[in-house]
Amino acid sequence: MVEILNGLKVLAFDLETTGISTNSDRIVQIALIGADENDSPIHEDILVNPQRPIPSGASNVHGIYDSDVKSEPVFKHFAEKIADLIEGSVIVGHNARRFDMPLLENEFFRCGINPPKPIAVLDTLEMVRRLKIPRPHNLGAQCARHGIDLSNAHDAAADAAASLLLMWKIMRDHPSSFRRPVEDVEQWLIHGEVKKDEDQLGRSIQDLEPFDKNGRIRIDNGSYILSFGRNKGKTLKIIKKEDPGYLNWLLNGNGIEDIEAREKLKRIFLS
Fold first, then answer.
1. What's the whole-model pTM score?
2. Among 185, 184, 159, CA closest to 174
3. β strands within the chain, DSSP E
4. Are the C-beta atoms of 117 and 247 separated by less than 8 Å?
5. Which strands form 217-220's sheet, in the order they lie side by side?
6. Which DSSP symbol is given to 194?
7. In this predicted model, what pLDDT tens digit does every residue of 79-132 receive, in sequence order?
8. Which of 4, 8, 180, 216 is the most exposed place for a label (fewest CB within 10 A)?
9. 115 and 89 in one domain?
């Protein structure tokens, strides 16, 4: 799709829910649409029993009623599958950071499961605001502005697919804003600028000796330091303690392409 997304699992994500509270409302539909690291398509469109009546106001918006979900499995039935898809992916969605992701995380917590962690969340609502694209900024209005059909709005799969296409058109129209690593794009969307990464000694990570051929791991006084991603600047020892799932992802063929370096690190940190 876009150079910064090459080789990454990219998933458009949207929820339909019982309401607008990220703390107390529940999922009735979840959609994940995109492709994996090998460009194999992913299309998940799942109805979920929220284990409570769906308020009429919510049903009037998304068209999902109690009768549609009463025989569907509860969220816990899908939790492992959804977690496997989202872990290590790039998530795309409209208002995903402030609504869909927090609500999804709370569903995982209710199941006693740690939520999955994507590499980055690229929120198209943040994109249109950061780039000062004229209002209104809701998904329907932005799709109309960019020539995207959203005739089936408020269906999770339709909204997810539309947000993915919207991101592509925004990146096409504003290429200079996206000539940076995807993690830096996310920070720019949130904060408006990307801070220079420096380790605790004040040196740039890029000044440190590379351990692997691509420089994704750097060496500093015997410590192995990650130079990209959400744990950038942390030692692998710290990552193993704080985010072991990410370390497993990193050292099992996804994050470090240098096979020899990866195997050495696996012997040190996964044995």
1. 0.72
2. 185
3. 10-17, 27-35, 41-47, 90-93, 120-123, 209-210, 217-220, 223-226
4. no
5. 209-210, 217-220, 223-226
6. -
7. 999 999 999 999 999 999 999 999 999 999 999 999 999 999 999 999 999 999
8. 180
9. yes
Which token pair is 266? Answer: 């696996």
Does pLDDT of 199 surpass 70?
no
What is the token pair recorded at 67? 């009768």
Per-residue pLDDT averaged across 19-30, rounded? 96
Residues 151, 211, single domain; the answer is: no
- Please state the domain count of the chain: 2
Among 141, 64, 52, 48, residue whose Cα is nearest residue 95: 141
Q: How many angstroms separate the Cα of 243 from the Cα of each of 87, 106, 239?
A: 12, 19, 5
More confident residue, 175 or 96: 96
Residues whose CB is less than 8 angstroms from the CB of residue 11 and which lie 6 or more positions away in sequence, other chains included: 32, 33, 34, 42, 85, 86, 89, 90, 91, 92
Helix (H, G, I), strand (E, B) or coil at 198: strand
3-state DSSP assignment of residue 251? helix
Asked if the structure places residue 198 within a domain, the reply is no
Q: Domain containing 112: what range?
A: 3-191
Task: DSSP for 28-61, please give it.
Answer: EEEEEEEE-TT--EEEEEEE-B-SSPPPHHHHHH
Q: Are 36 and 107 in the same domain?
A: yes
Name the pairing type of β-strands 10-17 and 90-93: parallel
Amino acid (one-letter) located at 77: H
Q: Is residue 148 part of a domain?
A: yes
Name the band, by pLDDT with cuts 50, 70 and 90, for residue 200. Answer: very low
Give the helix ranges, DSSP H, for 63-155. 66-69, 75-86, 101-110, 124-130, 139-145
Same domain, 72 and 167: yes
